[in-house]
Amino acid sequence: MPPRPRKGLRPSTIRIDPASISLPDWRTQANDPKGNRMPSDQPIHSHDHFHGRLNLEQQKRRAKELLKSIQAGEPDALTRLAAHLECEADTAKLADAQLVLARENGFASWPKLKLHCDVLAEKHRQAEAGTLPVLDAPETLHIRCGSDIRRTLKIAGFKGDFLEFADPFCQGPVPAGSREVLLAARADFVSRAYSIDPKDAEARQQKEHAALAAASSHDHVVLWFEHDSYDQLILAYLLDHFANVARPTKLELICVDQVPGVPGFTGLGQLAPEVLIWLWENHRQPVLEAHRKLGQEAWAAIRNPDPYILLALSNTSTDPVPQMGPALRRHLQELPAAHTGLSLTQTLVLQILADRGAMPAGRIFGTLVREYEPLPFLGDLMFWHTLVDLQDCDPAPLDVSDTHLPWPERMVDISAHGADLLSGKQDFMQSYEGKRWVGGVCIDPHNEGLKTYRWDLSDDGQLSIT
């Protein structure tokens, strides 16, 4: 499904130019809950704006410009300098400005940034000349939770097959029980939530699972993932799968939450071919017994109707996949919040409207991904499903107009009830008329036999469930 919003928590020193961010063409994403993570290859995410191909000459110019700004006493430049160096503005040298730029881009020093630029430039030259070294074999299978890097891998010179396995387990029911129960629940949810024909949803599911079942026939399988809950829940499923079947001769994983030189990193789909080669050469690791055990534990916890199990796992060291713990904790924040009954996504939507005023639904999505969501994971149709579910409430938290238009163009504002929910004056669970799932946890406030679990954060940021 798409290169979606995935950006993760980033240091305050990361600098993003808002002018370089554009919203997607929403109408090209029909039948795809995560935008172009299903068959289309069009970029859709507001952070998919830098491909990672750092230009050394450009960085040199920026360093000189930063030095001039520091010497001129410009506040922003001084703040950037102070974030990385104990240096007075009147004594700053070009080397100091270069170090600031290097560290803002994720490098320890300017020479390391320069070396990275040189390596990428050489890979780019080799790709254009058709002289790239052999990376994989035609018998290799690359597995990804979307189609976003399929074409880029080919451009980079990878020869292996590609499998898109893209069931968005981060949304909808992931019930405990048999494989048949799980697949039936998932197909039904994907069809209803994303307005996909039931036969198409089932056919896509069967095709993906059949291809996954055949993956063990490949000598070499590589899993490509990043750090948000969309990716990590699918990764947990795959690791559990490979723990229970005959495994390929070589099973490897590439999983990252940041890429040097890509301060706006959200996902692999935004990266240039030579950057994917760099990840292949520097971040590929064998999938060991520890990976498989983590996958088994995580997948069982995700499906468990008791969220305490998943919380306990998320608070342990999830090495050898350190990205999994934060993603699981973010997943749990889609449960109702302790003081409002809202999920974190629902809270952020209402907060955006309270802060910015009425705006088209598509712009809310862009703002959510770009500025508010701490660990972006939603794609466009997944986001729209969230809004529809939020409105399953009496009275409605949102005022929506222009309903004859495609959903991204419909104007949305926060209602008086929405403001009361956001402030905690009202509890969403008291007016919510729907039913939704967070993994194996069913949220149905009108079912007296179900406990409504809630999440909260302590002052020091520790997540708890009550």
List keywords for this structure.
five-stranded mixed sheet, alpha/beta, Arc Repressor Mutant, subunit A, single chain, 466 residues, Dna Topoisomerase Vi A Subunit, Chain: A, domain 2, three-stranded mixed sheet, 17 helices
Layout of secondary structure:
Elements lengths: L55 H16 L3 H10 L9 H11 L5 H20 L10 E5 L5 H7 L4 E4 L7 E2 L5 H15 L4 H16 L6 E7 L2 H15 L6 E7 L16 H10 L1 E3 L2 H15 L3 H8 L9 H9 L11 H13 L2 E2 H12 L7 H11 L7 E3 L10 E4 L1 H8 L4 H4 L4 E4 L1 E3 L11 E3 L5 E3 L1
Helix pairs in contact: 1-2, 1-3, 2-3, 4-9, 5-9, 6-7, 8-10, 8-12, 10-11, 11-12, 13-14
How would you write the strand order of the largest sheet? 2-1-4-5-6
Number of helices: 17
Outline the biggest β-sheet: 5 strands, mixed
CATH class designation of the domain at 140-306: Alpha Beta
Name the CATH architecture of the domain at 140-306: 3-Layer(aba) Sandwich
Any idea what the radius of gyration is? 23 Å
Strand % is 5-15%
Structural class: alpha/beta
Shape: globular
CATH topology of the domain at 140-306: Dna Topoisomerase Vi A Subunit, Chain: A, domain 2
pLDDT below 50 for ≥5 consecutive residues: which ranges? 1-49
Cα distance, first to last residue? 33 Å
Helicity range: 40-55%
Report the strand count. 13
What's the rounded overall pLDDT mean? Answer: 89
Order of helices and strands: HHHHEHEEHHEHEHEHHHHEHHEEHHEEEE
